[in-house]
Amino acid sequence: MMSENVPKPIIENHVIKGKRLSKRIRKQIKAEVAELVEKFGQPPKLVTIIVGSDPGSQMYVRMKRKACEKAGILSEHHDLAGSTTQEELLALLDRLNDDSTVHGILVQLPLPNHIDEKTIIGALNPLKDVDGFSPMNVYRLFYGGEKLSAATPHGIVTILDAIGMNDLSGKHAVIINRSNIVGKPLIMLLLNRNATVTVCHSKTADLSSWTRMADVLVTAIGRRTSSDDAYYITAEMVKKDAVVIHVSTPFGDVDFDTVKDKVLGITPVPGGVGPMTITMLLRNVVDAYLTQMKQS
Ligand code: GUN
User: Which terminus of the chain is more solvent-facing, meaning fewer CB atoms within 10 Å of its CB: N or C?
Assistant: First the structure.
């Protein structure tokens, strides 16, 4: 008889169980936080900031804060009016950068047009930049470090590690996304695992000629084709036994049902990359806290 203690597999019927992996890692983080609070006498704290009323941002930040709370991480939220000036936001960041009870700061993107994203990200104390977006953390990633790296790419490679794909030597990874949040940092993390990496985007010609070559296909288009509202990624565009990582909304880019049976594994939406993104944020908050407590 199978022991009840045998952990369930991360891939089941070709579906990569991101939520299951996420639960496992969050349990470890929660235990680690409890030990650290005992040791340092102070809980880790994340401060989240939203400027304006983007409904997606409100939802994502709510989920991030709830996950913090469950893991024993304090969270504080600043909901700023859309009319907040760049100077006001910079003044808040200055104060948080200097507050020793704050270990992580997350400014949810997008910001309103009158605020320069690069200036705001550049003003974050890199030790508290739990998104891994600030110049120092991007530089660290470029040189092979993975502490405080962007949460979604970090979640993706953690999924690959968990399914035995921690060394991608000889494998071709194709990323359909060139954003600062997903595609660009993911290039570095996949290169660190020896993958041959191709990046496709909206101006790429003949997308399927690239996707068909992918052993690992990461897709984060976030919408259907504009011509006929069809899925971008269909079964004939995917190599047999590839791994497909689908970073998207439920209205996403992949025809999940037909692709699923052709591939080794595919992440579902929801329950795939999403929970792992939040889990990696928690990991970053704890790592940021540890660095700061050791320095104080
Ligand atoms: N907006 C969409 N994704 C993210 C993210 O990972 N971090 C922040 N700060 N904003 C986002």
Answer: N
Q: Is residue 168 part of a domain?
A: yes
Closest Cα to residue 74, out of 83, 84, 65? 65
**In this predicted model, what pLDDT tens digit does every residue of 43-99 receive, in sequence order?**
999 999 999 999 899 999 999 999 999 999 999 999 999 999 999 999 999 999 999
Is residue 290 domain-resident? no
Ligand 1 atom index nearest CA of 277: 6
pLDDT in tens, 231-242: 889 999 999 999
Strand order through the sheet with 196-200 = 11-12, 15-16, 265-266, 243-246, 216-219, 172-176, 196-200
pLDDT of 8-50, one tens digit each? 999 999 999 999 999 999 999 999 999 999 999 999 999 999 9
Q: How many CA atoms lie within 13 A of 121 on its CB side?
A: 19
Is residue 108 flagged as an active site residue?
yes
Query: Does the Cβ of 106 fall within 6 Å of ligand 1?
Result: yes
78 occurs within a structural domain = yes
pTM score, whole prediction: 0.96
45-51: strand order across its sheet: 74-80, 45-51, 104-107
Q: Are residues 187 and 89 in the same domain?
A: no
Q: Are residues 91 and 165 in the same domain?
A: no
* Best mutation site among 58, 93, 108 for ligand 1 pocket (most ligand atoms within 8 Å of CB): 108
Confirm whether 171 is a catalytic residue.
no
Q: Which two tokens stand for residue 174?
A: 């194709």
What is the distance in A from the centroid of ligand 1 to the CA of 181? 7
230 is in which domain, residue-wise?
151-274
In a domain? residue 279: no
Q: What is the CATH number of the domain that holds 67?
A: 3.40.50.10860
Of the pLDDT bands very low, low, confident and very high (cuts 50, 70, 90), residue 229 is confident
Domains of the chain: total: 2
Active site residue 64: yes
Of the residues 45, 64, 171, 239, only one is catalytic, namely 64
Q: Are residues 252 and 165 located together in one domain of the fold?
A: yes
